[in-house]
Amino acid sequence: MPDNSYINAAKNGPAKSPFTAPIKTVPVLTVPENASPELVEKAKSTASAWQLSFDGNISRGLVLMQSEAHLALKQLDEPKVGEVLVDFASDALTFRRLHGGGKKEAVAKAVGLKGQSDWRVLDATAGLGRDAFVLASLGCNVDMIERSPVVAALLADGLERAQHSAELSAWLPERMRLHHGIAIDLMANWCNEPANLAPDVVYLDPMFPHRKKSAAVKKEMRLFQQLLGPDEDADGLLAPALALAKKRVVVKRPAGAPFLAQQKPHIEMQGKANRFDVYLIN
Ligand SMILES: C[S@@+](CC[C@H](N)C(=O)[O-])C[C@H]1O[C@@H](n2cnc3c(N)ncnc32)[C@H](O)[C@@H]1O
Fold this sequence. Notes:
Layout: E1 7-9, E2 28-30, H1 37-49, E3 62-66, E4 71-75, H2 91-99, H3 106-111, E5 120-123, H4 130-137, E6 141-146, H5 149-162, H6 172-175, E7 176-180, H7 183-188, E8 201-204, H8 219-228, H9 238-244, E9 248-254, E10 267-270, E11 274-280
Parallel strand pairs: 1-7, 2-3, 5-6, 5-8, 6-7, 8-9
Antiparallel strand pairs: 3-4, 9-11, 10-11
């Protein structure tokens, strides 16, 4: 992989943890037909960095596709289903960054950014890094933890491309860091690592089982669910998060979902599609 100094591999890696990622499908990393030898080499090195398999001649199933432009998750049997990738310079994220309401956004209010400029946030369930990006664009220093090697590879690719973006390179690389590992373990040992400072806020957004299939669940979300399934061990995230955060723990939940670990928050904030449960630390 190119410069990946912003990625911290977890010392207590996934293999040692009882909280292993509930991967439903393990995609193979591949390249488009007629890929150049350089692209094949790049794809092989990405596969090896994330301990994924490489197969240059695959035509079916869920794959990670390394193209010249980016790394993306793709269902080859369903060409109409869009690909999933991390693009911090996308139109949607750029619009949200420039016109999304800033510190008045629900997630910013839940994290408590009003009057704060450089809070340290630990996003312990990073996913595609969108919430982390919004918080970083508002001035937060964000450490992201992601346990799935496939999702972490997508995030690393997005971070790497952001380093070359005219709009993002000046601030994003120094405000967003990726840690690959199991959040429950990493949070328990967070302050033992010399490079890690205790976060003001721990942010949690575990996958919630969606009852409705079909159009209601966006195509991209369907791919993600096929890859990861629900985070069945999500309740276990709350206690280490409460022990680590200096100011608050924020949990993003779908509207109507039960509280994480059945623990009532101090504040419930209703966003457009989600609820933010806020646990204050005295
Ligand atoms: C719903 S997604 C998060 C979406 C994210 N907030 C965003 O804005 O893109 C949840 C992610 O958390 C990860 N995850 C869940 N439990 C975890 C754990 N214990 N440790 C590390 N990652 C975890 C899952 O693999 C998944 O990628």
